[in-house]
Amino acid sequence: MSAFNQTSLAAADPQSLVAEADAAVVTIGSARAAIGQLIYGQEQVIERVLVTLLSGGHGLLVGVPGLAKTKLVETLGTVLGLDERRVQFTPDLMPSDILGSEVMDQDAEGRRAFRFVKGPIFAQLLMADEINRASPRTQSALLQAMQEYHVTIAGQRYDLPAPFHVLATQNPLEQEGTYPLPEAQLDRFMLQIDVLYPDIEAERRMLFETTGSGDATATRVMDAAGLRALQQLVRRLPVGESVVEAILELVRSARPGAAGDRKLAEAIAWGPGPRASQALMLAVRARALIDGRYAPSIDDVLALAEPVLQHRMSLSFAARADGETVRGVIGRLKARIG
């Protein structure tokens, strides 16, 4: 274990940390079960969304229509006790529609003054539905908020609620009338979470549960303060030296010219920066806590490599012409440390 981690562990009471982690595991398990009562056949998606939120990050949900992405975010807001709002992104959406705007007020004596009316971004959980349908100007309105947790209107700073998370959705099929997310904004998302079709048993259960006379409702398990406490706990979990080295090797090998395999190195046009290492470091801790473990393992690094890296990489034209895919490259990079 590195000197940094040894110092951080020495400053903490191990027994207190274990007791706190045990209580957190129970709470997280209850939240996971409550979400699963309404979202069927998406266990991996639920896990990765919880990893994102426990790590204090933002998530990009990518999947075809009808896979309950919107319902998942609404359910998360209820179960976690967060103030949740939804914005449907469209080509004519303006930055002020998200951030808010100043309006002119006049009092009884005729004096006029500007008053800031907050937009939907002032929520603890913001769902940016079909984010790639908005113009780059509107998409950029989220950049400062997602990284710095405040917005600036007319030179005045307004802090966002804490915690603050953005869960954006994107349809991978329909690209007409959309604007690709710039790399700077993609990098703000901790994980890209692919939402796939449910298996047949989950879909069978869905048929009976959602077409009957009664509708299931989400149950609140925690509140915003509880989530923030869990986020602080995640940051205090120890990380072994072998896991740190695996994170560094994986992320650094995903950059152009860095992989030991020459063909693999030439296939990568651009790769992840240090923010990817930070995201993976937090995400493996959160996944370990969700699984009831006090420290992450290399298996956690391998499990989260794809959602952390796939939206932070691009392949060269020659590699794409040869049929290479980002997922395939990440799989080969994982095999080097697995």
UniProtKB/TrEMBL annotation:
EC number(s) per entry: 3.6.3.-
Keyword Lipid metabolism: no
Organism in which the protein naturally occurs: Kaistia geumhonensis
Record-given protein name: MoxR-like ATPase
Cited SMART domains: AAA (SM00382)
SUPFAM superfamilies with a match to the protein in the record: P-loop containing nucleoside triphosphate hydrolases (SSF52540)
Residue intervals of the AAA+ ATPase domain: 55-199
GO MF annotation list: hydrolase activity
Alphabetized UniProt keyword annotations: Hydrolase
EC supergroup of this enzyme: hydrolase
Superkingdom of origin organism: Bacteria
PANTHER family: MAGNESIUM-CHELATASE SUBUNIT CHLD, MOXR FAMILY PROTEIN
